[in-house]
Amino acid sequence: MVEALHEGEPAAVILDIMLPGENGLSILKRIREESAVPVIMLTARGDDEDRIAGLELGADDYLPKPFNPRELLARINAVLRRSQPTPAGDRIEAGGFVLLRKRRTVSRQGQEVELSATEHRLLEALMSYPGTVLTREALLNYARGKDFGPFDRSIDVHISKLRTKTEQISGGKRCIKTVWGSGYMFEVEEP
């Protein structure tokens, strides 16, 4: 599945919960670690708890079985429309850095580095609000699409990796600032 995501870059994924071997919700979680591809859950498990779990793990839509094939097609088309960035929406620029959403890269002065899915979403959040302190919880929710506890420190590891990558392309310039007791901020140079 992960290999297929990297090689084929599908437009969308239709995923069931009850699968042989691995649970569909577990697969969805792994997809979200690797990709922002739209995912529609299509499953016989349509109770509230299953729908909520699927949506909280990052599914873009959820359709219980039995279903009307025309409704599935309409939902696929709607998800694909929503996933298409606006022409100006594919890139974010801040502090001399350019983040490209489709390519999942960040560049500065012609140098470019690739980002993991989580790193990309974190940097997207930070660059979308330059000069604004974002809490760890807000960044984790943005990056993973679900709530984490206030003491989850995995954000620090991702920020450290992001700093290393951004410093590689900026000649050592540190753009992600730690605001002690508050969170992180994407710093922009004053003109």
Automatic annotation (TrEMBL):
Keywords: DNA-binding, Phosphoprotein, Transcription, Transcription regulation, Two-component regulatory system
PANTHER family: DNA-BINDING DUAL TRANSCRIPTIONAL REGULATOR OMPR, REGULATOR OF RPOS
Positions of the Response regulatory domain: 1-80
Domain of life: Bacteria
Protein name: Response regulator transcription factor
Residue ranges flagged as DNA-binding region: 89-188
UniProt cross-references to PROSITE patterns, sorted A to Z: OMPR_PHOB, RESPONSE_REGULATORY
Domain OmpR/PhoB-type, first and last residues per copy: 89-188
Signal peptide, first to last residue: none
Cross-referenced Pfam families: Response_reg, Trans_reg_C
Modified residues (4-aspartylphosphate): D16
Keyword Transcription regulation attributed: yes
Organism (species): Geomonas diazotrophica
